[in-house]
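Ticket #4471: structure output looks truncated?

Reporter: J.K.
Steps to reproduce: submitted the chain below (220 residues) through the standard prediction queue, then opened the result file.
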Amino acid sequence: RGLRMLTTAVTVRVLEGFDDRSVGPESWEALLGATNTDIVYLTWHWQRAWWEAFGEGDLLLIAAERNGEVVAFAPFFTRWGMVFFVGSERQADYLDFVGDVGDPEVLEAILETARAGVSGFQGFELDVIPDSSSTGKQLQEAGRRLGLACYDEWGEGAAAPALDLVGCAEVARAAANRKSVLKDERFFRREGPFEVRHFRDGEAIHPHLEEFFEQHIERR
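Returned output as attached by the reporter:
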């Protein structure tokens, strides 16, 4: 875990975990804004929760620094000699690096550190990187330089559905007023008082999470 690697001005560190004292959620979230894929699945809180719930193998969180400042995180884990993104295989629509890996030295240093730190290394399987991200192309270029073959398994056929509530307001209203949705609403109104409340901040949301999780588990 003390592995360090220097590539010109790029220093790469393998973190002790999501609670590593040298890197907190604040710095993680600050870098998320510079990420090709700024989504909830790449937040520190979601990544940490996924690992605690589903994590198997060994966590491999890598921080890349330039001139003493963290510029990117690689949220990896390893299993069977393979390296995956945290969040792979379950739940996440899209995944990516956190921060800016556009600098070839940064990306190569991360990949080389991961490869050197995995016993019996077999390869990388980095799933669900969106087409809108430049990471796919950068990985292909880095792979060639590092002697790694790179394959695009899904092509352009694995897009996750999304709805722009602001830019497509009419479509959003139509989706909310579908017959199946209105039918469910009428059912609840017949069963008793029906009220819709919106919670947008953590303090208001937190007291309701336990019940929300229980309902979600029961539904599934």
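Triage note (M.O.): checked the attachment and the full token line is present. The two ends are 38 Å apart (CA to CA).
Status: closed, working as intended.
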